[in-house]
Each structure stands twice: as structure tokens, then as C-alpha cells.
Amino acid sequence: MMKKKEIHVIGVLCGMFFAVCLLNLFGISLGFETDETARNAGETTTVKDVGDALACVNSSIEKEAPKIALTFDDGPSSQCTGRLLDGLRKRGVRATFFLIGKNAKANPDLVKRLDEEGHLIGNHTYNHVEITRLSDEEAKRELMDTDDVICSITGKHVEYMRPPFGVWQDELEKELDVMPVLWSIDPLDWTTKNVSEIVNKVVTEAGENDIILLHDCYDSSVDAALRIVDILKKRGFEFVTADELIMD
Ligand SMILES: [Zn+2]
User: Fold this and answer.
1) 20 to 30 A from 27, CA-CA: which of 8, 20, 89, 177?
2) Backbone angles phi, psi at 67, to 5 degrees
């Protein structure tokens, strides 16, 4: 049985811990390490311990890796996507792939593999068309046909889409319950075969929560993507799928 006094002391300590937590939340430092507080015995030691524990928690929060997402449009490609998947698997990295419906239909094994290896699959229309140039009915058909193909292979409906050319129509978002995902870094990988140029553009711009746009239908883009992963991993980035950034 605890004595009343002990219960009182525990109560006081809990109260102090709560107060320190609150102050920490507001970014207020108590200056535990000053000579003045060190001279106060007993009570100060307890507060210092709490402070140390909180500092430890805070530093582990600060150390959380910055997140970044690789996204690939226009696949799957029978020529390039398999090699990209091998490279990503070797590096333990998951990415996001916005598939063109007719390419998905032609490469069901790659679609299956994308899903099985934990990548996020998105919709990039059936024929790679600019949505706003179509009638509402045609636009819906482009997205629904792509979803049908992917869903028949993976068993899952596609929740995210990337509009070709970045042009989107808000009305469709509500009607089809699909979320558009744009990008923040575009190295224009389709305009060059120079791998270093693509890599440099991306790694010089890369920051926390960036979404990188590449295309998995060019060998140069696959080479660049894997080098980008190696460089940014060394810098401490954690690669996540696009939905993880959007939901944050
Ligand atoms: Zn595209």
C-alpha cells in the first residue's frame, strides 16, 4: 500500500511532467542545464530527468526522415518497367505508377507485379488524352475503362489519377471519386537521353514532400530513377507512395 504522502508526491510529479509537456508543445524551454537550477537539489533533479526524457523524445521526432515520392507516367512498358521494378525492389523502394489503360491491358503481368510489390497504381486515362478536350461522357469512359482493366488484374479500384498534360476537370473528381495527383519536380525526362542531366535536375531541387515526375517508358529515365534513389537515400530521404504524402 502506498502512503498518502507518496501518492501526493507522485501526483505532484505527474503534474510537473504534464506542465513540462505543455511548455514543450509551445516550444518554451525551461533551461534545465543552467547553474542556478543545478544548485537546487532534489526537486530539480526530477524536473531535469523529465526534461531529458522529453529532449530524447523530441530528438527522435526531429530525426524522422523527410519523405519524397517517385511517380512514373505512361507505363507499363514491356521494354523498361520490369527493369525499373527490379531496381526498386533491390533498393526496398516503393513508387507510384500512373498507367495508361491500353498499356495496362497489353502488360497484365507487369500490372500484377506493380501491385504485388507494393507500388501504388494510378489512372492516366485509356488513350493518354487531354481530359478537357473530351465530352464529359468520353472523359468518364477514358477513366472508367482504365479502372476496369486494372481492377480486373489487381482486384482493386484505382483511387488516384494523373491527368495527361496536367489538365484536369474538377467535376469529374466528384463524379468518379478519383483524386488527381500532380507533381512538384519535373525534369522533362522525355526530352533527353542524358541520364546525368535528368538526375541533376531532380537531386538539386529535391526537398521534403516533393513529388517527382518521370516516365517508365524510357531506358534513360529508368537509369536516372535508380540513381536518384541512391543519391537521395544517402541524403536521408524516405521514398513513399504519393498517397502517403497527400494524406499527411
Ligand atoms: Zn502522360
Assistant:
1) 8
2) -95, 150
**C-alpha cell belonging to residue 186:** 519535373
Output the nine-digit C-alpha cell for 75: 507505363
**119 classed as catalytic:** no
Of 244, 243, 206, the C-alpha closest to 228 is 206
Cα(127) to ligand 1 centroid in Å equals: 10
Active site residue 216: no
Per-residue confidence band for 41, with pLDDT thresholds at 50, 70 and 90: very low
CA distance 177 to 198: 34
Q: Given the residues 74, 119, 124, 215, select the one marked as catalytic.
A: 215
Q: Looking at residues 86-110, what average pLDDT do you find?
A: 98
pLDDT of residue 170: 79
Mean pLDDT of 107-114: 98
Q: Which residues pair with 97 in a beta bridge?
A: 72, 121
From residue 197, alpha-carbon distances to 95, 212, 221, 224 in Å are 21, 15, 10, 9
Helix (H) or strand (E) holding 189: none
Q: How far apart (Å, rounded) are the C-alpha atoms in residues 210 and 180?
A: 16
